[in-house]
Design goal:
alpha/beta, two-stranded antiparallel sheet
Length: about 475
C-alpha cells in the first residue's frame, strides 16, 4: 500500500514538473522569438541610420564642445592666407593718404606703398546675338538651302527662332545634375544671370541633349567601361515617378557610368555592365554581383570590418571572440598592402589558412554563424587586392563607388529622384559625362556646350 501511495505521489510530482517544463519551454521559445525580432530591429535601425534625410547629423550635440577654430599657441599649425592672384590686375586703384591726420589733423608723411588684392564678380549681363540666316534656292535642283554659323546650336526659324545658347543650357545641366539644384532653383540662378528660362524648358533641353548630342559619347563611355581591367560597382535607392527604383554606378580612376533601373537584380546591373565582364570587380557583399561569373572579384573589407565592430559591441563572453578574430584577420590583410610582392604572396597563404580555420570553428550564436557563413562565401574574393597586378589598381574596399554615388544621394535628398523614365535615362547619361569629365579635369560645362555646336569628336576628347 505504501509503495502504491509513493508511486502515486511520484506520478503527481512528475506530471507537475512536466507541466512546469512545458510552460518554461513556451517562455523560452517566446524569448527566442523576441530576441530574433529585436536583432532584426537593431539591424534595420543601423541600416536606416545610414540613410537619414539629414546625412550629416551625428546625434545629439556635445554638452561641452571644444572651442571652434585654431588652438592658441605656436603649435597650432601652418598659418594660412589667400594668395595673391597669379595674373595681371584688370584695373589699379590708388588709396592715397588723407590730407591730414584723422586724430589730430597734422601733416602725414608717406613712408611706403603696400598692395592689396581683391577678386570680384563683375556685373553680369547676358550676351544677345542676332544671326542673320541667308536662305536661298539651288539653281540646279530647286532645293531650299539655308546658311549656318558655327555658333548656332539649332537651325530652327520662325516661332522657334529665339533660343537660349548652348553655354546657358550646359550651365543649367551642371547646376542640376552635378550640384543637385532642383529645376526650379536652377531657373532662379539663371534668372539672376539675366536669362529667362522656365524649369520645364531646362528639363526639356537636358532630355534633348542626352538623347541627341551626348548619346554617342555616352555609348562609347559604356563600351569603355565594359572593356576596363577593373571596375568598382555599387547601387542605392532611387525614385522614378514616386515609385521605388535603383541607381547604379560603375567606376574606376578613368571613367564613371550611372544608370537607373526599376529593380535591383542581375538583369538590372547588366543593362550597362554586361554579364560577360571579365575584369576585376570590386563590390560589397550583395549577392547579385556574384553572378558576374567571368570576373575576378574583390569584396569590400570595410563593410566586413564595420559588421565585425557592430557585433563586438552587441556580444559578450565567448561569442565575442569570433568577430574579434575576424576583424583582426581583416586588419592584417590591409596591413599586408605595404609588403613587397613576395611578402604579399606569403601573407595571402597565411591569411587563407587563418580564414579556413576561423570558418570551421563551432558556433552557438546565430549572428556568428551568419558571419562565418558569409566569410566562407566571400573567401575567394577576400584578398584579390594583394594578388592582382599593381597596374590594375585593385582596392581593398569599394570606396570609389561610394564616393561616386554620394553626389547622386545628395541629389536624391534634395529633389527625390526623377518624374519619368526618360528623365531617369537623362539622369544617367548626363551624370556619367559630368563625373567622367571631372575625373580628367575637363570643364564639363564647356564640353557639353561644344557638343551642342558640333558633332562629337569621340570619347578620346573626354578622356584626354
Amino acid at each position: 500500500m505504501e509503495d502504491a501511495d509513493r508511486l502515486a505521489r511520484l506520478e503527481t510530482a512528475l506530471a507537475r514538473l512536466q507541466r512546469e517544463m512545458a510552460v518554461k519551454d513556451q517562455v523560452i521559445l517566446a524569448q527566442l522569438d523576441r530576441i530574433a525580432e529585436l536583432e532584426r530591429a537593431l539591424e534595420d535601425t543601423r541600416r536606416g541610420g545610414k540613410r537619414q534625410a539629414a546625412p550629416f547629423a551625428k546625434g545629439a550635440p556635445e554638452a561641452n564642445p571644444k572651442r571652434p577654430g585654431r588652438k592658441r599657441g605656436d603649435a597650432h599649425g601652418r598659418h594660412g592666407h589667400r594668395l595673391a592672384p597669379d595674373r595681371d590686375p584688370d584695373r589699379i586703384l590708388q588709396a592715397g593718404l588723407p590730407v591730414g591726420c584723422p586724430d589730430c589733423g597734422g601733416h602725414v608723411s608717406s613712408e611706403r606703398t603696400e598692395q592689396q588684392w581683391s577678386v570680384e564678380i563683375p556685373p553680369i549681363a547676358p550676351v544677345v546675338t542676332r544671326i542673320d540666316v541667308e536662305i536661298g534656292t539651288c539653281d540646279g535642283c530647286g532645293r531650299r538651302v539655308q546658311g549656318h554659323h558655327p555658333e548656332q546650336s539649332s537651325d530652327a526659324l520662325g516661332a522657334a527662332a529665339s533660343t537660349v545658347g548652348p553655354i546657358a543650357k550646359a550651365w543649367a545641366m551642371w547646376l542640376h545634375y552635378s550640384l543637385g539644384l532642383s529645376f526650379g532653383k536652377t531657373r532662379a540662378v539663371l534668372a539672376k544671370l539675366g536669362i529667362d528660362m522656365t524649369a520645364g524648358a531646362i528639363c526639356a533641353a537636358s532630355a534633348s541633349a542626352a538623347s541627341k548630342q551626348l548619346a554617342p559619347v555616352h555609348a562609347e563611355l559604356v563600351t569603355a567601361a565594359n572593356a576596363s581591367a577593373a571596375l568598382t560597382m555599387d547601387e542605392t535607392g532611387w525614385h522614378v515617378g514616386g515609385h521605388g527604383a535603383w541607381l547604379w554606378v560603375a567606376t574606376n580612376p578613368n571613367l564613371s557610368c550611372y544608370w537607373v533601373t526599376p529593380h535591383r537584380g542581375f538583369a538590372d546591373a547588366t543593362e550597362t555592365i554586361t554579364a560577360d565582364f571579365d575584369g576585376v570587380l570590386i563590390r560589397d557583399g550583395y549577392a547579385v554581383y556574384n553572378s558576374y561569373d567571368q570576373a575576378t572579384h574583390q569584396t569590400c573589407l570595410a563593410h566586413l570590418m564595420r559588421r565585425c565592430r557592430e557585433m563586438e559591441a552587441d556580444l559578450d563572453g565567448p561569442d565575442r571572440k569570433i568577430p574579434v578574430a575576424a576583424r583582426k584577420l581583416l586588419a592584417d590583410a590591409l596591413a599586408a598592402r605595404d609588403l613587397d610582392p613576395a611578402g604579399k604572396a606569403a601573407a595571402v597563404v597565411e591569411l587563407n589558412a587563418r580564414l579556413d580555420t576561423l570558418c570551421a570553428r563551432p558556433v552557438g550564436h546565430e549572428a556568428n554563424r551568419r558571419l562565418l557563413a558569409h566569410l566562407d562565401r566571400q573567401s575567394s574574393a577576400m584578398f584579390t587586392f594583394l594578388t592582382a597586378e599593381p597596374a590594375l589598381e585593385v582596392d581593398a574596399t569599394n570606396w570609389r563607388a561610394e564616393t561616386g554615388i554620394r553626389p547622386a544621394v545628395v541629389n536624391r535628398k534634395v529633389w527625390g529622384g526623377n518624374r519619368t523614365w526618360r528623365g531617369a535615362t537623362t539622369q544617367g547619361r548626363i551624370t556619367s559625362i559630368i563625373r567622367t569629365a571631372n575625373q580628367h579635369g575637363i570643364d564639363a560645362v564647356n564640353y557639353i556646350a561644344d557638343r551642342a555646336r558640333g558633332p562629337d569628336p569621340g570619347l578620346t576628347t573626354l578622356l584626354a
